[in-house]
Amino acid sequence: MKRIVYTSCLAAVLAAGALAQTPEVGQRKENQQDRVAQGVKSGQLTAGETSNLEKKESSINQEVKTDRSLNDGKLTQQERRTVNRQQNQMSNQIYKDKHNAAQQHYGNNEVGARRQNQQTRIANGIQSGKLNAAQTARLEKGQAGIGKEVRTDRAANGGKLTPGEKQTINQQQNQASKKIYKAKH
User: Fold this and answer.
1) Rama region for 106: left / alpha / beta (φ>0; ψ in -120 to 50; rest)
2) How many other C-beta atoms can be found within 10 angstroms of the C-beta atom of residue 81?
3) 21-73: per-residue pLDDT in tens?
4) How far apart are CA 168 and CA 153, in angstroms?
5) Whether the Cβ atoms of residue 57 and residue 32 lie closer than 8 Å to each other
6) Are 56 and 90 in contact (CB under 8 A)?
7) Under 8 Å CB-to-CB from 24, ≥6 apart: which residues?
8) What does the alpha-carbon distance between residue 111 and residue 113 come to, in Å, rounded to a whole number?
């Protein structure tokens, strides 16, 4: 009986040791993803900064995956040192990006408020029965197109809209507003 308990304990210790060989890499990856997510949520990271960080993180993850596939699921000491160095560089980049002057502002702008207003009007039209499915589909398709244009423009400009782009989006929302009114009446 003691032999079975001892063997079980030894197996548990060995299993824990095997897991302990690389959790540092995995835990750091999770911690850094949490830091990026917090930066996005708080607005400390712009869309461009986030995209750049995520590309770098993906590259590190792919390298770890490749190294592990070549070494029976484990990383060598040299590979761990390399990944640790890369993660240190990532950590420094996250810090720099979160503490620079660039800020992302979500939903507290005229374009975001206007889009929400249009969606509310469409939803009210559906609820009241003033809009049928075909009308709703057309209106939603228009809103989706405007939303896509906003995302594209922001992606091209580091997360912001230029004054000219804001004016164009506002004109498109004016047209969409008229279509919503006509469909509902």
Assistant:
1) beta
2) 11
3) 445 777 887 787 677 667 766 667 665 676 677 678 778 888 998 999 999 98
4) 11
5) yes
6) yes
7) 80, 84
8) 6
Closest by CA position to 25, among listed 72, 66, 85 = 85
User: Which tokens belong to 130?
Assistant: 């003033």
Q: Enter the pTM of the model.
A: 0.49
Residues 91-115: pLDDT tens digits? 999 899 888 876 644 455 677 778 7
What are phi and psi for residue 148, nearest 5 degrees? -65, -40
Rounded distance between C-alpha atoms, residue 128 and residue 8, angstroms: 66
